[in-house]
Specification:
This protein is of the alpha/beta class. The protein is about 25% helix and about 30% strand. It has a single domain, classed as Glutaredoxin, CATH 3.40.30.10. It has five helices and nine strands.
Length: about 150
């Protein structure tokens, strides 16, 4: 696993979101974009993270950010997650891991002594030209918006 670094150009992508719309990186050209990766919809940490971003969405928007959440969950799971918690931002259903692998967030993980491959919880802040401006690799799920805005 080699995640994108500050200064890297983000590879273009085209993935279906929770509502069945196609989201392209190019749709966000000219604006700042926050792409946050989470392991699995409707799990405690991922819910806390996404709800914190939802609760501070206006502040993030006022700071000029658009948001995209990404996991390998199906469109149906993403839609259920989004509707249950009323997220005002798209969640990408990256089942074939196109975006996950392009950003380099798929790799070995450890949980309760077990090793497996999965999505690393990371957030990328991308500038108006599609270049990584900042990487947050130690995400505080309950205070993630504050990390982005600092």
């Amino acid at each position: 696993m080699k995640p994108l670094q500050v200064g890297d150009k983000v590879p273009s992508f085209s993935v279906t979101d929770d509502q069945g719309n196609t989201q392209n990186l190019s749709d966000y050209k000219g604006q700042k974009l926050v792409v946050f990766f989470y392991p699995k919809a409707n799990t405690p940490g991922c819910t806390a993270e996404a709800c914190d971003l939802r609760d501070h969405f206006k502040e993030l928007q006022n700071a000029g950010y658009a948001l995209l959440g990404v996991s390998a969950d199906s469109q149906k799971k993403q839609r259920n997650f989004s509707e249950k918690f009323e997220f005002p931002f798209p969640l990408l259903a990256d089942e074939d891991k196109q975006v996950i692998e392009a950003f380099g967030v798929w790799g070995p993980k450890k949980f309760m002594g077990r090793e497996y491959d999965g999505i690393h919880r990371m957030t990328f802040i991308i500038d108006e030209n599609g270049v990584v401006e900042r990487v947050i690799d130690k995400v505080k799920t309950k205070a993630h918006a504050a990390q982005i805005l600092e």
